[in-house]
Design goal:
The protein has about 425 residues and is of the alpha/beta class. The protein has helices at about 15-25, 45-55, 65-80, 95-110, 125-135, 145, 150-160, 235-250, 275-290, 295-310, 320-330, 360-365, 375-385, 385-400, and strands spanning about 5-10, 30-35, 60-65, 115, 140, 175-180, 180-185, 215-220, 225-230, 230-235, 255-260, 265-270, 335-345, 345-355. The chain has a 5-stranded parallel sheet with strand order 3-2-1-4-5, sandwiched between helices. The longest helix is centred in the C-terminal third of the chain and has 19 residues, at about 295-310.
């Protein structure tokens, strides 16, 4: 029996050509695996038949939409996942679920190697291969574009020569990756970072300059997970999809950023994530009223590190799993409703309510009924500022008692700082006078 290689298959030109390209280069049979994470587009059965038509001995299709929303998007929401404060980890969180199904297929079909369509300069090669090494440490990895010299022009020529059932006549100038959590666009015209994005780049969002009437939505959360919109119970997948439509119609979730790739280069990226950005905004505001101050401050650092680990392909790492435990524990009181207005490219929160809120109206109000004892404030301020006051007193005392010889011009550098005289350290008579207490 021939060796088998499982290929992460998208249905596009590069991975369609890769089926035959890998077979020719390695002599192995290729099993194509397509994973539906809500990317839309073609019917998955059409994609499966194309893989078989391009020479795959088996074609496996996994409907992972609910799995992706429940087990990957929701943890990202709990962590307010934004890499470098901007990127909602659209592609980064889809790779682990795809890897899971690739390894599963490798076991089912007896493959020894897993292949993916990434280049050698992006983040996804790391995400795929680190994930595969973790879940299937005995499996080998190859990347046709990176390892087998499969360039775009060669792919087109190969497809035409072999009469593969794939369109080759028109090249999209952009590299696009999308799923239910969002859409990522790069390369082409965007590589000049002075160029403004053109309208044809966008698909998930309408232009925010001419929005429809404001859309007010109430999002219900239970322990950090959205469970309903406007009082109607929905699954996480349904909520993301509905907010993609509603927030997208208002132009919410457009992001233009230059980010730091794991491989060490900076890359200009355009993202569209209307549902994700609306949910993250709402979730943050609910955390503001349900998580205690020091807990929230610490969680902000955990969220940032969590996002960095996921971006860097460490979804299955011990540290990321440990941070998951902390984040899940932090969400036990993050339940309630957030009301927000979607309009003209913004998602603005204008109402909050929660049975587990830490907000106390009687403590916060300045009107009659105020229960805050203001007489406690002076003593609190004295104690709170004590360490700074003591340090300041010390600084003034030391500065005011500096020995006269250290204030001479010849003992100061060009910047005005005091410097020791030559040989002072070796001279018994050069001991510095102790400041009086």
């Amino acid at each position: 029996m021939k060796d088998r290689i499982v290929l992460a298959y998208s249905g596009g030109l590069d991975t369609s050509v890769a089926i035959g390209w890998i077979a020719d280069a390695t002599g192995a049979e290729v099993v194509a695996v397509a994973v539906d994470v809500g990317q839309g587009g073609e019917n998955m059965e059409t994609v499966r038949q194309r893989a078989l038509g391009c020479g795959a001995v088996e074609a496996y299709v996994a409907d992972a939409r609910d799995e992706f929303a429940d087990e990957y998007c929701m943890p990202t929401l709990k962590a307010n996942g934004l890499y470098q404060g901007h990127y909602p980890l659209v592609s980064a969180i889809s790779r682990p679920v795809i890897v899971k199904h690739l390894v599963k297929a490798a076991r089912e079909f007896g493959a020894t190697t897993v292949a993916h369509g990434c280049t050698g300069k992006g983040n996804d090669q790391v995400r795929f291969e680190v994930g595969i090494q973790t879940l299937g440490p005995d499996l080998k990895c190859i990347a046709p574009v990176r390892d087998l010299a499969l360039t775009r022009d060669k792919a087109i020529a190969y497809a035409e020569e072999k009469h593969l059932p794939i369109v080759t006549t028109k090249k999209n100038p952009y590299s696009i990756d999308q799923n239910v959590w969002g859409r990522a666009v790069e390369t082409g015209y965007l590589e000049d970072i002075w160029n403004a994005p053109t309208k044809d780049i966008y698909d998930y969002t309408a232009t925010p300059e001419f929005p429809p009437a404001p859309d007010e939505v109430t999002i219900t959360f239970v322990q950090g997970v959205p469970t309903a919109l406007d009082g109607v119970a929905m699954s996480p997948l349904q909520i993301i999809q509905d907010l993609n439509r509603r927030a997208g119609a208002q132009g919410v979730g457009r992001i233009d950023v230059v980010e730091d790739r794991l491989v060490g280069i900076k890359s200009r990226e355009i993202y569209e994530a209307p549902g994700a950005m609306a949910l993250i905004t709402a979730h943050k505001h609910l955390e503001d009223i349900t998580i205690e101050r020091e807990h929230a401050r610490f969680k902000a650092g955990v969220d940032r590190r969590w996002s960095e680990l996921v971006y860097d392909g460490q979804w299955f790492s011990p540290l990321k799993r440990a941070l998951d435990v902390f984040i899940d524990d932090s969400q036990k009181y993050v339940s309630g409703d957030i009301r927000m207005v979607l309009h003209g490219g913004t998602a603005v929160v204008n109402g909050r309510r929660s049975d587990t809120s830490l907000y106390d109206f009687n403590l916060a109000t300045y009107d009659t009924g105020d229960t805050f004892d203001q007489s406690n404030a002076k003593g609190f301020i004295d104690i709170w500022g004590m360490s700074s006051k003591v340090a300041s007193t010390r600084d003034q005392r030391v500065a005011g008692s500096e020995p006269e010889w250290l204030r001479r011009p010849e003992c100061r550098s060009s910047t005005g700082r005091t410097r020791a005289r030559s040989g002072a350290a070796a001279s018994p008579g050069a001991q510095r006078t102790r400041s009086p207490r």
